[in-house]
Amino acid sequence: MKLKSLNIFKQVAPSISSPSRNGDNNDVTENLHKQSEDNKVLRKDTDKHKVEELVRKSNRKITSISSVVPWSLFPNTIEVEESRVTFIFRQFFAFQSHSVDIRDITNVFIESGFLFAKLQVVSRTFIQNDIKIDFLKKKEALQVKKIIEGLRTFAYNDIDTSNYKIGDLITKLDELHKD
Predict the structure, then answer these.
(1) Positive or negative: CA dihedral 156, 159, 163, 167
(2) pTM of the shown model
């Protein structure tokens, strides 16, 4: 077996090192180098486009509501963006911020009283599993609930919401979740 493979090598080796083959090898090497450079440029353009798309899709604030001041000395805030909901809890000289991805929200509840509402968002990733903000205006809380539920539905169905203007998006979300 060793003798046979040695004979094959002796037959192939001269053709690899022959001058006519080296010219072909240089052409192949140049073509591979050019393709590699073209791929790098294409990859750079693709990455740049992806980053532009991510920036375009991220951080578009749809709505924001805060708890009512007299009952809450330091008003807490809910900011709804296309891809996440941010809860800001204010305290004396401090605040905490919790962001939850729309896809990670499992439920949205409203507890409504005579004057105010409490919005509760249940997340599959948050340690405490739910986030509550009290003393919200009832109408605003219901609107935020509709928007979050609509965004969850859009995210579940892989609908790109960045193609809509904010006003049009809110209208579509209202149509989707009419009471």
Answers:
(1) negative
(2) 0.70
Q: Which pLDDT score is estimated for 77?
A: 95
Spatial separation of the C-alpha atoms in residues 146 and 170, rounded to whole Å:
9
Parse the chain into domains and list their residue ranges. Answer: 2-56, 59-176
Question: For residue 115, how many C-alpha atoms fall within 13 Å in the half-sphere facing its CB?
Answer: 6
Distance CA 175, CA 179 (A): 9
Question: Amino acid identity of 113?
Answer: G
Distance CA 120, CA 128 (A): 12
The Cα–Cα gap between 24 and 176 comes to: 64
132: helix, coil or strand?
strand
Q: Tell me the pLDDT tens digit for each residue of 92-141.
A: 889 899 899 999 999 999 999 888 999 999 998 866 778 899 999 999 99
Contact of 59 with 42, CB cutoff 8 Å: no
Please provide residue 81's backbone torsions phi and psi, each rounded to the nearest 5 degrees.
Answer: -115, 175
Q: Pull the structure tokens for residue 61.
A: 């604030």
* Gap between the Cα atoms of 101 and 110, Å rounded: 19
- The CATH number assigned to the domain with range 59-176 reads 2.30.29.30
Paired tokens of 24: 């072909």
Query: What are the tens digits of pLDDT across the range 146-169?
Result: 999 999 999 999 988 888 899 998
